[in-house]
Amino acid sequence: MTVKVKNQKALWLVLPVFILVAFSSLIPLMTIVNYSIQDIFDVNNAYYVGTDWFREVLGDPRLRDSLVRQFGFSASVLLIEIPLGIGIALMMPKSGRLASLCLVVMAVPLLIPWNVVGTIWQIYGRADIGLMGSALTSMGFDYNYASDPVDAWLTVLVMDVWHWTSLVALLCFSGLRAIPEAYYQAAQIDRASAWSVFRYIQLPKLKNVLVIAILLRFMDSFMIYAEPLVLTGGGPGNSTTFLSQTLTKMAIGQFDLGPAAAFSLIYFLIILAVSYVFFTTITQMDKER
Known about the structure:
There is one protein chain. By secondary structure, the chain is mostly helical. The protein contains 13 helices and 2 strands, in the order αββαααααααααααα.
């Protein structure tokens, strides 16, 4: 009896990836960990403070307020963009030149840099020269995203929906195109309604794609920075100041590197934990079915 020996030479192909990850992720992460547990004045003067920075950050009301705003924004994004993206994908033509045109048009917002998106909506929302701002003003709405916290919040939310719903739609479109035609033929023979086709064929087949879409949109919306910074500067007041902006003010504006490093680790753990909960919950529901 001969025993087959597995060839492990292919692992050498993965080695460059591990090296790249080490330099781009692990080493900066260890630097942040080092700053989070020490009070560093210069290269030769560093004092171990343990968890003091973490206790200081967790007791900071700015973190709590930014965290509430951040979760509210990310939840709103998911509740709007996921159903809207599915609806757009269902309405898109399946093939032909029109389908290609729709794919190109849907991809355009994704190609625009984040700071440019903020600049576009900054002009678009102005009441004097902006199309949306002047239209709302002419209809009798007292709209001013620069002075009204509710208007600023809604403008940032609509801006994000415009920018990123295309990603959800394109992912769902690819998932719909992967469904075998035999499923639709069987549904047609059974005279299933459009809702039944969506409920029992399309939606279950989109589950894996939706997991990816939810995770991507949550992580990206939870780390939003450039768009609201350009559009509102975090204002009026702190109404659109999210976690990333609070962290930037702490690290660069105040140069509090120790608390900022602790804040960064807490930020990272929150994203990791929530993403893990999303993933395990959805996959567990899939197994139960």
